[in-house]
Design goal:
alpha/beta, TIM Barrel, 5-stranded mixed sheet, 16 strands, CE4, Glyco_hydro/deAcase_b/a-brl, Lipoprotein
Length: 423
């Protein structure tokens, strides 16, 4: 992710870092045999309207996802919910078991989340040459590949997470940042190739690992995948163009203030956000990596004596941002993190505390990006325009009942809250 900090003097850009999954490694070149890119895996895919295995059985269409919130239009004078989105870049189950840990925390606190899977976490080291990254040699990846145990554990977590109502997005594949072939230099067509390959590694993990009898992922990834976050928050312009052509619905690769979102390039712009930086006069981006760089530089194991303070600083900053929105304009709070135990796991501890603190409050909905996009899609455009007119932390002076008292436009047919259709 990009490291972005806003201070009183403006916005400063720091160095970026590729994030590796524990247990992944790069090494020798392996076989080219197996499923790759946009090629179809063995076997005919199930009809789109049928429940059954897809391709080689790596995925399976099992019907509508369970536990998805039902989006409804705001009524006249109703205060908007306070949405909070917790999301994870490169989501995979490594030796630290953080994927399974945060699934447990989410269940205990009535939350669903978005897990941005890196496709190479389902690609074994021996099949690394199946990945053809734009502007790089085949089999190249800044975050390595996976082994059979890592793939098996990650698939298990993806399956459970989806069945619990969480979203499986994508963080693409090789996590290339900066000059010399980084994602910021990719064309629209190169982004399409990267997206196709990210899908393929999910849809053909059984072929690529030989785990033919393992349980399938319970979703059609072509339907499931509706949004993404780019590596290092780079390459957004051409990614959005590619994503729109491919039917995706949102992007969360930008940096924004705590205001109500709008569409950008045809996609919901659900950008990362700047929140008050506890102990500082400026603001910081809502991601653990940015806090770490400010606190210990690129040293992931900084001074042990400072780790508790560093974690508390992340926690307190996110809570400041939450309170500013909760008591103000009610703009959704977007938080992005990594399954990493940087600085002794202090940021993971802090996230536990934030989730437990905010997700059980009245009027708060801790949802995935899919849940937020679904809700935005059914709102009256005029209502959203009014909400966007509120500044950071600004509550309506006359109160919510008066602020949103205007008669909303009729909801389209099929949208919750629409008038009944006469036979």
């Amino acid at each position: 992710m990009a490291v972005t900090q806003r201070t009183a003097a403006g916005v400063a850009l720091a160095a970026v870092c590729a994030v590796a999954l524990a247990g992944c490694a790069s090494g020798t070149t392996g076989s080219r045999e197996g499923a790759h890119g946009a090629k179809a895996a063995a076997g005919a895919p199930a009809p789109r309207n049928a429940i059954g295995l897809i391709g080689d059985g790596s995925t399976e269409y099992t019907g509508a996802q369970p536990h998805l919130p039902r989006p409804e239009r705001l009524r006249r004078g109703e205060k908007p919910p306070q949405f909070v989105v917790f999301s994870w870049d490169g989501a995979g189950e490594g030796s630290q078991k953080l994927f399974s840990h945060f699934r447990k925390i989410a269940r205990a606190n009535r939350a669903t989340m978005t897990y941005f899977l890196s496709g190479v976490y389902l690609l074994p080291e021996a099949k690394r040459d199946l990945y053809r990254p734009p502007q790089h040699s085949p089999g190249t990846s800044e975050i390595g590949f996976n082994d059979d145990e890592g793939i098996r554990n990650t698939v298990q977590q993806l399956r459970g997470a989806w069945l619990e109502g969480n979203e499986i997005g994508t963080h693409f594949n090789g996590h290339f940042c900066g000059p010399g072939g980084g994602v910021g230099e990719w064309s629209v067509e190169e982004w399409k190739s990267e997206i196709a390959q990210a899908k393929s590694f999910v849809k053909s993990w059984k072929t690529n690992t030989g785990m033919k009898t393992a349980p399938s992922l319970p979703f059609d990834y072509d339907k499931e995948l509706i949004g993404a976050r780019t590596p290092c928050l780079e390459g957004q312009k051409n990614f959005v163009k590619a994503a729109r052509q491919l039917g995706l619905r949102y992007d969360t690769s930008g940096v924004d203030n705590q205001v109500w979102p709008k569409k950008k390039g045809g996609l919901w712009d659900l950008s990362m956000q700047l929140v008050p930086f506890a102990g500082h006069s400026g603001e910081q981006l809502t991601t653990d990596y940015n806090f770490m760089v400010d606190q210990s530089g690129t040293q992931t194991e900084g001074d042990p004596a400072k780790r508790e303070y560093w974690g508390n600083q992340l926690r307190d900053s996110l809570l400041k941002g939450f309170r500013r929105a909760y008591g103000g304009n009610r703009a959704p709070l977007v938080i992005g993190n990594h399954f990493e135990s940087w600085n002794g796991g202090t940021y993971m501890r802090a996230l536990d505390q934030v989730i437990e603190n905010v997700c059980n409050k009245a009027g708060v909905r801790c949802v995935s990006f899919r849940g937020l996009a679904d809700w935005l899609d059914v709102q009256d455009p005029a209502t959203l325009d009014r909400l966007r007119g509120l500044n950071v932390g600004e509550a309506p002076k006359q109160g919510w009942a008066s602020f949103l008292s205007g008669r909303p436009a009729p909801a389209p047919k099929g949208v919750p809250g629409a008038p009944a259709v006469r036979p």
